[in-house]
Amino acid sequence: MAAPNIETIVSLSKRRGFVYPASDIYGGLGSSWDYGPLGVELANNIKQSWWRWAVYERDDVEGVDSSIIQNRNVWKYSGHEDTFSDPLVDCRDCKARLRLDKLDVDPADGKAMCSNCGLKNLTEPKDFNLMFRTTVGAASAEDDPTALAYLRPETAQGIFINFKNVLDTSRRKLPFGIAQIGKAFRNEVTPGNFIFRTREFEQMEIEYFCRPEDAPRVHQEWIDAYSAWLDTLGISRENIVHYEQNEKELAHYSDRTVDFLYRFFPEREEEDKQFDELLGIANRTDYDLRVHSKKPEDADGKRINPDSTEDLSYFDPQTNERFYPYCIEPSIGVNRTLLAVLMEAYTERTNDKGEVRVVLQLKPSLAPIKVAVLPLAKNNDGIVTLAKKLKRDLQPSMRAVYDDTGGIGKLYARQDEIGTPFCVTVDHESLEDHAVTVRDRDTWEQERVTISELENYLRSRL
Ligand code: GAP
After folding, report:
1. What's the number of domains the chain is made of?
2. Is 277 in the pocket of ligand 1 (CB under 6 A)?
């Protein structure tokens, strides 16, 4: 089977309730998406997997949950007010508004070409800041400039400004990290490709602080660690390439960034165009802790940050040194991870009647529903009562559903399509032999299991 493209996933998502177009009843809102009953479960499972792996299974990472709206100075000193922008051009012919850095350049004359009409009649680039603006309190930004605020464009700054709080309250020593999951907002000029690029999205970020001389080694360790974590989500390494950002592409804070590109666009002819960013791992040096630090003066006697009240340097009691730690930052989007997980899991199989079935081979830990309990005869009180009781009994330890809205073949197909690893069928014999049939999503094989053993059986296979 050819690899599914994003359109296949869009259609499955809408049909089965993973993701819907946002504001749909009012005609939608460009590139905004809502997560439905299955999408929210899948996203939560991805976030839980990440948090367990990044925070609980390590001994050196703490979590935080910082505000989306912070003091404007956070974005002034982080550099986002000045530099977090895209170069925009307009096409004088077809009127398309485009990002200059994303356009193909004609090698003959070095001029960028409109990706919409192919002509080269473009205006001079203008910088467009991507931060969403808002005001805090009843004043407008015109009446009171201090009321201006931004929705955060990355969760990272909420970590840097809490560096000292976490250090003091958790009594950590270097190296250690701080993890956060949360929404971020960017007024993207060219959003699109379903949930790949949207204006509102969710990030899972770690800021990992270490001694400056250890940063190159720590950077590599995180690159290796992320390869291993993506394995656990079922994202195959043949669909990932590592990309070293060049000087022009590096963000203003980064010394080196390695992106993991995923094959989000398998339908594109040129292989290198099939891949786009899933995550990035940056060496942010000591940039952020320094810029947020109150420091009376630098070497030239100038005050560096007159607005901050804290110095975010670190004192090493063993060496008696005070310095600004370096920071290695792995940053990944929940939404792009979810898209990659769905693309990897999507398969089609032909049953013995020659019908093509979608089977979503999600890792059981990520599956929105772990088990569906199905009565073979929905008019038989004994079967229905037992099936409903089994569903209720399983629910405390795994997400279970009861479904009697179709024939058994249809019910199996429905669960395959949403990635439910197991279906449990209650039949007439179950009332006599106190056993049920467990059907496996991937092999379609069935096994008879005693009801008293059912929960342990499912748990061991999940
Ligand atoms: N703190 C670093 C940072 O924000 P980034 O490369 O701009 O780095 C990190 O973003 C990750 O966030 C990306 O690799 C991607 O997974 C996700 N992301 C960024 N912009 C996005 C958007 N507009 N829509 C969906 N996900 C996005």
Report:
1. 2
2. yes
